[in-house]
Design a protein that fits this description.
Length: 352
Amino acid sequence: MDNCDFGLDSWFEDHARNLCGSAYRLARVIAVDRERFVVHDGHSEIFAVLVRKFVQATESPADFPVVGDWVCIEHHEEDEFTSINAVLPRKTLLRRKMAGTEIEFQMLAANIDTAFIAQSCHLDFNIRRLERYLVMVNQDRIEPVLLLTKTDLVSPEALAKVITKIRKAGIDHKVIELSNVTEDGIDLVREMLIPGKTCCLLGSSGAGKTTLMNHIAKTGFKTKTVSVSGEGRHTTVRRRLMMLANGAMLIDMPGVRELGVMSGREGIDERFSDIVSLGQRCRFSDCGHSNEPGCEIIKALGNKELDQDHYNNYLKIKKESEAYEKAYAEKLKKSRGSRRAVPSKTKHKKRY
Ligand SMILES: Nc1nc2c(ncn2[C@@H]2O[C@H](COP(=O)(O)OP(=O)(O)OP(=O)(O)O)[C@@H](O)[C@H]2O)c(=O)[nH]1
Ligand SMILES: [Mg+2]
Ligand SMILES: [Zn+2]
């Protein structure tokens, strides 16, 4: 495989040598369809399945390949499908808590360099939701770029207000204002698509991700007409890594209705660094920020230096994430004994 194909670099090649030995071939997962995977080896798309040994050794859903992963493959003449023998370590992994009460997480994509977080600047704009996406992206040190879509539906004043809201929440990442209708701003997105780098489109359903992808990649994927209010409807159901003409890669994600954050401390601390550094200045190192004297957070909330909603969102995400991590660790501990951590959706039938 050519070195810049699909973003392959020496980091992955070194891992492949250690993990798979010399007989390996490397491929990138471009789509996942239950137990079948579509991989690309730089020449063509290949259907692949996991070898039995691999499935038996898995302990958690995170061990299974996801879109964007690098895998070692092997083909035997007598087999219908190519085998996936190993998944290489990931540079980054985007994951979220499964919707509902199930204690499980869903892996969204691996080895992402830049995440575009799309939100309509029209009715759907929600700063608290944006903070959630940023926690998820920051956790793995993926570069976030905010896309404010549907600028054709708002006045310049309304758009300026949205930008002020973002900046006031301490979000200083790059923001691109764009309209898929007038095509304003789309060239700025194109500039961010660098050969060999993998980007993904995240954001609520109906934000305009697939429409943008169609402009950029001329893919003609299905989008849906929005309701009169401008609210989106769920259209994209499958993640797929697209190779663009310039050698950059783009993954369009289905919008998620509920973004349960399952993040470690890093993502939360990074996004809410203003609160973390205020807390570090409290008189007591174990300050609970409730009624302790010399509490900098209470002081900042009192004099409105710290926005109450921003702080509440921090507490909510932190609590949710901690409770979830704990429940998940317990679940994993239990299932290790009975080896039932394999996700129900990934039942590997006859081949294994
Ligand atoms: N007015 C306006 N409409 C847009 C814009 N971008 C997308 N739309 C419309 O919004 C609807 C939803 O767009 P999609 O591209 O399917 O949204 P999506 O983010 O891919 O949604 P999911 O796949 O459900 O996550 C479509 O009818 C688009 O034509 C825009 O910039 N301005
Ligand atoms: Mg879509
Ligand atoms: Zn305090």
